[in-house]
Design brief:
By secondary structure, the protein is an alpha+beta fold. It has a single domain (6-112), classed as SH3 type barrels (Roll). The protein contains two helices and seven strands; from the N terminus they run αβββββββα. It has helices at residues 6-19, 104-108, and strands at residues 24-29, 46-50, 57-61, 65-72, 75-82, 86-91, 97-99. A four-stranded antiparallel β-sheet has the order 2-1-6-7. A three-stranded antiparallel β-sheet has the order 3-4-5.
Length: 144
């Protein structure tokens, strides 16, 4: 089975955001097994994280996982999540980015990130995220 396109698209968008001096944020579905994040920051089954180089240490975006170390209220925390838990990557300043569905193939494949992007609807619906301090909300469109 071919590998998922999701990690490649995430890495490409991350690099594009850095090249354009934008701040990359990701949203994770915290109901996916293997997600390790500070529980006090989870809202409605998801967490939004700044993954810019200034906010993280040892960021890894490989085909299976997203992991890094970050500070939350002054305390260092290791963040880990299977790539299939990532539901969105977007630029804080513009809202430009991409949303992803969690496909059945990804769930069946475990942590190896297999499956087809957007092949099936997720059981959880991703809500639009408001940018702090801005009147304009980011908008994302799922491309199938």
């Amino acid at each position: 089975m071919a590998t998922s396109t999701k990690p490649y698209l995430v890495r490409a968008l991350y690099e594009w955001m850095l090249d354009n001096n934008l701040t990359p944020f990701v949203a994770l579905d915290t109901n996916v097994p293997g997600v390790k994040v500070p529980v006090q920051y989870i809202k409605d089954g998801q967490i939004v994280l700044n993954i810019s180089p200034t906010a993280t240490q040892d960021l890894s975006l490989n085909n299976q996982n997203l992991s890094f170390c970050a500070s939350f209220s002054g305390l260092s925390c290791n963040i880990e999540a299977p790539m299939r838990a990532l539901t969105m990557i977007y630029a804080k300043e513009t809202g430009q980015g991409m949303a992803f569905d969690i496909s059945i193939e990804e769930e069946d494949e475990g942590d190896n990130g297999g499956g087809t992007l957007g092949a099936h609807k997720s059981n959880t619906e991703t809500k639009p995220l408001a940018a702090k301090g801005k009147a304009k909300k980011p908008t994302l469109k799922v491309v199938k």
